[in-house]
């Protein structure tokens, strides 16, 4: 399969950067519910509503981001930002995607340290988590309808869901198996990677079509420049902290530790949080036992990637071991430093790899493998949605293990009626009234605030 040359409008900004920045900022305010909710918001905004990018192009980018360490939703935003506006667009999209979460978690960490309790703050988010369940359900349906174009892909999506939800198969193993199956099926079914014919209800053609080639060409010189600048920016804050505060300071320890974890977070935040908790509590003493769970709860109720919980860890660790600095100053500096070293590699991976991946879209073998990964991603989103729903709607869960079976099931008697009612409200607004995601989140959040205040009274 060959691609046409770059479209004329892809030699410059596909959409004005100012307009794109406004869209990314609105998306960033809706990125609750972990990667499933974040991908759902981008799917609806970029593919379905604004028609900035085609469905298959969106899923192709998602498949590539799934292969990388780090939060795939933030990397997907960075990739699409690059497609729309080049390097400037990648930086704007990626930074705006995490900015509200950084600010919110910084504020919540401060409140936690000052008050020792987050009950009042958490009541503000009581209605958001249930609303995300409806948003994720809509995304799974839309992505499945448009992405699973062959029976084998449906089977692959179901298999990925079962492997993750019922047997706790490691995420990298699911992705590798999906790529292999996609490649094998692609050899027997050449039409596997052929886009399906557009339907009348698909709307206008997207600005970035599924077959247009991006204008920015890969080269060794370009890669060397980006790698040199990226590594310098990544290392500079930690080196500066070592010069100013000494090698044994908490800033250097945190900078080096979280720089390492940024490179091994395959499969999202949950894949590495157990290791982070063990080291932060048992080795470095940044947290007290049980505080990682509280930080995770805060991260789950704020916009942005769940891996932002590392910001909470850094804040508490530096506040309790500030060295010569004021504890509050040390906590804020550490929080920002850890955020920096966690996300700079995400930008580096996209800006280095995206031009090469774009040129390889015409390779049938690679396209087939990524098509298999795309199908598996549908199952991944569904499994994350189920996990999120179970932990939102039920207070307690049980782990059922029998042979290879490793299933987390809700305790039915622990059903929480308030989240269930708000979930029903969110589903009604999304599927029946067809409200926007932002409006749905607003109504559900307001409902949660009212209920939370009444319960606290």
TrEMBL record:
The keyword Transmembrane applies. Its main location: membrane. Keywords: Cell membrane, Membrane, Transmembrane, Transmembrane helix. It comes from the Bacteria. GO terms for molecular function: chromate transmembrane transporter activity. It is a multi-pass membrane protein. InterPro entries: Chr_Tranpt_l_chain (IPR014047), Chromate_transpt (IPR003370). GO terms for cellular component: plasma membrane. It is found in: Cell membrane. The keyword Cell membrane applies. The chain crosses the membrane at residues 90-112, 124-145, 152-185, 223-244, 256-277, 328-354, 366-394, 414-432, 437-456. PANTHER family: CHROMATE ION TRANSPORTER (EUROFUNG). This is Chromate efflux transporter. It comes from Nocardioides flavescens. The gene is chrA.
């Amino acid at each position: 399969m060959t691609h046409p040359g770059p479209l004329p409008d892809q030699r410059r900004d596909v959409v004005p950067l100012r307009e794109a920045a406004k869209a990314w900022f609105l998306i960033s305010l809706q990125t609750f519910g972990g990667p499933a909710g974040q991908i759902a918001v981008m799917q609806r905004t970029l593919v379905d509503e604004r028609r900035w990018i085609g469905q298959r192009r969106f899923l192709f980018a998602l498949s590539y981001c799934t292969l990388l360490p780090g939060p795939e939703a933030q990397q997907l935003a960075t990739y699409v930002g690059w497609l729309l506006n080049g390097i400037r667009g990648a930086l704007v999209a990626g930074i705006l995607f995490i900015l509200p979460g950084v600010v919110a978690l910084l504020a919540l960490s401060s409140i936690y340290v000052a008050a020792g309790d987050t009950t009042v703050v958490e009541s503000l988010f009581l209605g958001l988590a249930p609303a995300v369940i409806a948003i994720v359900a809509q995304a799974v349906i839309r992505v499945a309808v448009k992405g699973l174009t062959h029976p084998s892909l449906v089977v692959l999506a179901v298999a990925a869901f079962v492997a993750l939800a019922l047997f706790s198969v490691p995420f990298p193993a699911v992705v590798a198996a999906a790529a292999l199956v996609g490649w094998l099926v692609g050899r027997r079914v050449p039409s596997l990677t052929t886009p399906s014919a557009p339907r009348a209800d698909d709307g206008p053609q997207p600005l970035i079509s599924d077959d247009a080639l991006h204008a920015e060409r890969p080269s060794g010189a370009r890669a060397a420049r980006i790698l040199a600048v990226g590594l310098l920016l990544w290392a500079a804050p930690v080196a500066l902290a070592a010069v100013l505060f000494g090698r044994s300071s908490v800033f250097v320890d945190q900078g080096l530790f979280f720089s390492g974890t940024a490179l091994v977070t395959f499969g999202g935040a949950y894949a590495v949080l157990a290791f982070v908790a063990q080291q932060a509590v048992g080795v470095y003493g940044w947290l007290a036992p049980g505080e990682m769970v509280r930080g995770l709860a805060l991260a789950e109720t704020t916009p942005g990637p769940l891996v932002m919980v590392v910001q909470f860890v850094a804040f508490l660790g530096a506040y309790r071991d500030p060295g010569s600095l004021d504890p509050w100053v040390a906590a804020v500096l550490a929080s920002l430093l850890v955020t920096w070293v966690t996300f700079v590699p995400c930008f580096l991976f996209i800006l280095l790899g995206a031009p090469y991946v774009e040129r390889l879209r015409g390779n049938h073998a690679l396209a087939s493998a990524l098509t298999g990964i795309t199908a598996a991603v549908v199952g991944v989103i569904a499994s994350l949605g189920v996990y999120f729903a179970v932990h939102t709607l039920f207070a307690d869960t049980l782990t059922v293990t029998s042979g290879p079976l490793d299933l987390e099931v809700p305790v039915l008697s622990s059903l929480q009626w308030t989240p269930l009612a708000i979930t029903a409200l969110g589903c009604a607004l999304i599927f029946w009234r067809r409200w926007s995601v932002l409006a749905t989140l607003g109504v559900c959040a307001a409902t949660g605030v009212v209920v939370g205040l009444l319960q606290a009274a």
